[in-house]
Write a structure and sequence with these properties.
61% helix, 163 residues, mainly alpha, single chain, 8 helices, Serine Threonine Protein Phosphatase 5, Tetratricopeptide repeat
């Protein structure tokens, strides 16, 4: 069981997704900045393919495996962006594939230029690490093997059943 406030995390994801849809300044705003000599190159708004929004919708519907498949396909087809990796991590997180989630959260927190997304990735990474550390079987080896052999350990030595 993952211990965090899902509604808060979903709201944060929504904010991150909507932040990517920022509106470029109008022509008059750009001219005013140009006159002051402080104009920077107009920041190009990141465009997302329709599949990206389809996958985000699947995340909100808690269909993480289906969403992951779309995000992974986007990533492999040249759409390697920080938000794509964040959502891949989020999907892995919710599918309890913690090692993969951890890797993608680290990519986002290391390389993203979006401070909000970096923060969310750091929070997700912390949750994954905390959850992984609190698993009851952590560090106890293969508990199932010990139970099924009556406490005996397999030596890995002999062959066959013996006679």
């Amino acid at each position: 069981m993952i211990h965090f406030n899902r509604s808060l995390l979903i709201a944060a994801i929504l904010l991150v997704t909507m932040a990517g849809q920022s509106i470029l300044p109008s022509g008059n705003d750009a001219e005013a900045k140009g006159k002051k000599g402080k104009a920077k190159a107009a920041r190009k708004a990141t465009t997302y393919p329709p599949e990206f929004y389809e996958a985000v919708k699947l995340v909100y519907e808690k269909k993480y495996k289906d969403a992951y498949e779309i995000f992974d396909r986007l990533d492999r087809n040249g759409y390697c962006r920080d938000k794509t990796h964040y959502y891949i991590a989020y999907c892995f997180h919710n599918m309890n594939q913690l090692a993969q989630a951890s890797q993608h959260y680290q990519v986002v927190s290391s390389f993203s230029k979006d401070p909000q997304l970096k923060y969310l990735a750091a929070v997700g990474y912390g949750q994954v690490q905390k959850y992984a550390a609190s698993r009851t079987y952590a560090g106890q080896g293969n508990l199932f093997a010990r139970l099924s052999t009556g406490g005996r350990s397999w030596s890995g030595g002999g062959g066959g059943r013996g006679g």
